[in-house]
Please model this.
Amino acid sequence: MNNLTHAQKVSQHLRSRVSALHIENALRSPIIILSAPRSGSTLLFDYLASLVGTSWIGGESHRIFRHFPQLGVANASFDSASLDRSHASDKCKLLFRDNIAAMLRDSKSQMFVDNPERFLAAEPILIEKTPRNALNVKFLDCVFPDAKYIFLHRSAAENIASITEAWEVGLETGRFVTFPKLPGWDRRGWCFLLPPGWRNLVGKSITDIARFQWEMSNLTIARDLSELPHDRYTTVSYAKLLTDPQRELSRLLRFAGIPNPNQSHANFASKLSVTTLTRPNKDKWRRYAEEIEPMLPALGEVSDAISVFEASVLDD
Model:
């Protein structure tokens, strides 16, 4: 129990001020964004959390995971950071939900814990996101059994190039590093999520690592979502969000149940995400073309799998 001390303290403080029913209502039917790292999820997350009728915890949920050291990796051997139903004990689920609720705020920064009645009167919908959740759908389904999911995907070349760029920055500065001392790893740290099979990347290039993370994220998301009822998930491409934000965001808001779905979304991409390293450009990936272009034929199989999954979702 010692490794839950901080989480327990947060829970005890919350429940001294807020009822269990209030917590249940505040966390009803959250919207969870799933994606590979560097897919544009921060841009989408920040935008949705800024809309009236939504709530968030003031940032990404990796700060909540830090309250639970036992959720850092799947097992003591560091085989991956993939969480499944076995990690969601009754106590863990309760404390995880409480720790989310303790940090909950609406789009105008009204804290749930300060005035639950006023907060809940607006019926805000929780928007949740952190890239590691690509590997955590089964765990999240236990913690939030009524959650809905948005699967955001980005083209292989663009996404892999962006992950590669971030790894280079991460190894130089420490930014994006999730495992500073990963046992058996041959670099200064590991950036972003840790899928099963990561040890096969020892000695490989950063672009190989980026490809691996892109593939594993997208394939895992598609596989795990396909096991849920179809009305609990949808999908959207980063490219469509940028080229037709009005249509795509209106569709996503209707799916999520967020009020006023047809409001103007013209300013969706007007601000750069806080995680942006260099300004967006559709040809920016060509900086890594020499490494990425030979990968594209094999990557086509994963891209095709994503397209088939998307078609099955949007045809329903």
The longest helix spans residues 206-225.
